[in-house]
């Protein structure tokens, strides 16, 4: 008889985004009692160095702390690990090598979700950190699906995305929502049919202002939660 699945979440990046993933997992799980919910252990330690600053050469690397988190989850014999932070996937190869359990890749899972959309969008706007955009993960996967991407320019990143993202990190979700909704509107005006919220703070911000643009948005964290639940149920 195989061991029951136990999911590990490498979180803290940021703590609200981690709780958001857990909330989504609970809401998606078709359970009628406690015992039917997906079993999860969470490493929600926000003292991991800032990923954006590290990749901009302005801060310490988060890799030692990320590897420490993987070691702690390894000790618990988790069956899978989810990371509700897109930018942290820059260190995915090193983390996957150190992990005994497979690490679910949020970008691959989001791309599979987009591939299954009916109708499939022709142009998609991507809202993400500068490091994630420069890595090109979403652009490459969407191009393979025949989907064009619309990206923010440098000024929009500096005046809308960065302050919007960090507003959420300090608990000012409504301010973050106003800024990020403005950025989302710009991408839609530029021809995007749907939006990929490729930073886990963005859905929290848009929810805080009850943004109507959520109806046009694809949330990779939600796709990750769905994937976890499917693995658990199958």
From TrEMBL:
| Single GO MF annotation | amino-acid racemase activity
- List keywords of the entry alphabetically: Isomerase
Q: Name one Pfam family in it.
A: Asp_Glu_race
The EC number(s) attached to this protein equal 5.1.1.-
NCBIfam families per the UniProt record, alphabetical: asp_race (TIGR00035)
Q: Which family does it belong to?
A: Belongs to the aspartate/glutamate racemases family.
Q: Which PANTHER family match?
A: ASPARTATE-GLUTAMATE RACEMASE FAMILY, GLUTAMATE RACEMASE
Annotated protein name in UniProt: Amino acid racemase
């Amino acid at each position: 008889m195989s061991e029951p699945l136990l999911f590990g979440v490498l979180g803290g990046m940021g703590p609200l985004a981690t709780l958001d993933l857990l909330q989504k997992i609970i809401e998606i799980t078709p359970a009628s009692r406690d015992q039917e919910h997906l079993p999860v252990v969470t490493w929600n330690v926000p003292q991991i160095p800032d990923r954006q600053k590290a990749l901009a050469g302005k801060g310490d690397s988060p890799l030692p702390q990320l590897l420490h988190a993987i070691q702690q989850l390894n000790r618990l014999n988790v069956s899978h690990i989810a990371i509700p932070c897109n930018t942290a996937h820059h260190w995915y190869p090193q983390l996957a090598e150190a992990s005994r359990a497979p690490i679910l890749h949020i970008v691959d899972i989001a791309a599979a979700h987009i591939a299954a959309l009916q109708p499939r969008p022709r142009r998609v706007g991507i809202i993400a950190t500068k490091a994630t955009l420069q890595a090109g993960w979403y652009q490459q996967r969407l191009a393979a699906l025949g989907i064009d991407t619309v990206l923010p320019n440098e000024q929009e990143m500096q005046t809308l995305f960065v302050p919007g993202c960090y507003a959420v990190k300090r608990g000012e979700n409504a301010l973050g929502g106003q800024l990020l909704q403005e950025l989302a509107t710009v991408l839609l005006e530029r021809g995007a049919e749907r939006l990929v919220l490729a930073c886990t703070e963005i859905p929290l911000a848009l929810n805080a202002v009850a943004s109507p643009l959520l109806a046009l948005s694809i949330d990779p964290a939600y796709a990750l939660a769905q994937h976890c639940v499917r693995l658990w149920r199958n």
